[in-house]
């Protein structure tokens, strides 16, 4: 059974940092491209970042570029998102998601649907507020 379990969210002041984690199980994590996406209150799902199966290809949305680092530890079946210089507009539920097929990216737009992915977790809430 495929499972993705996010953690690490919370309440943080503007300018602060958080490290989100996503523990994967039930599939061969190391052969799938992985994603972070987020949904702010009342808004569409927004693509945040992508990392290839081996971690050598990485992409970021402009809204987080320069403040965010995606990484993965294939030995631990874990995906990470380090978020720095957080802004109130980063407030959202953050989801990790797995590609539909192993070995390559099927490609996602800037506003995907969770159903565009092979699997996704329950999310972890990030709230940036003073």
Helical segment tally? 0
The SSE order reads: EEEEEEEEEEE
Strand content bin: 35-45%
Query: What is the residue-averaged pLDDT?
Result: 96
- Structural class call reads mainly beta
- Low-pLDDT segments: none
Distance between the termini: 40 Å
Task: Describe this protein's structure.
By secondary structure, the protein is mainly β. The chain has no helices and 11 strands. The chain has strands at 3-7, 10-12, 18-25, 34-39, 45-51, 58-60, 68-73, 78-83, 92-98, 119-120, 124-128. The strands form 2 sheets. Strands 2, 4, 5, 6, 9, 10 and 11 form a 7-stranded mixed sheet that branches. The radius of gyration is 13 Å and the shape is globular. The N and C termini lie far apart (40 Å). The mean pLDDT is 96.
How is the secondary structure organized here?
Elements: E1 3-7, E2 10-12, E3 18-25, E4 34-39, E5 45-51, E6 58-60, E7 68-73, E8 78-83, E9 92-98, E10 119-120, E11 124-128
Parallel strand pairs: 2-11
Antiparallel strand pairs: 1-3, 3-8, 4-5, 4-9, 5-6, 7-8, 9-10, 9-11
Please supply descriptive tags for the structure shown above.
45% strand; 7-stranded mixed β-sheet; mainly beta; single chain; 130 residues; 4-stranded antiparallel β-sheet
């Amino acid at each position: 059974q495929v499972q993705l379990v996010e953690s690490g969210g919370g309440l943080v002041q503007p300018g602060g940092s958080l490290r989100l984690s996503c523990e994967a199980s039930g599939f061969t994590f190391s052969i799938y491209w992985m994603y972070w996406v987020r949904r702010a209150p009342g808004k569409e799902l927004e693509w945040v970042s992508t990392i290839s199966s081996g971690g050598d290809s990485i992409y970021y949305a402009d809204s987080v570029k320069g403040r965010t680092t995606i990484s993965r530890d294939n030995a631990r079946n874990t995906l990470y998102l380090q978020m720095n210089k957080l802004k109130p507009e980063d407030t959202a539920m953050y989801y990790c998601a797995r590609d539909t097929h192993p070995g390559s990216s099927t490609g996602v737009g800037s506003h995907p649907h969770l159903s565009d992915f092979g699997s996704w977790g329950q999310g972890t809430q990030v709230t940036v507020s003073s």
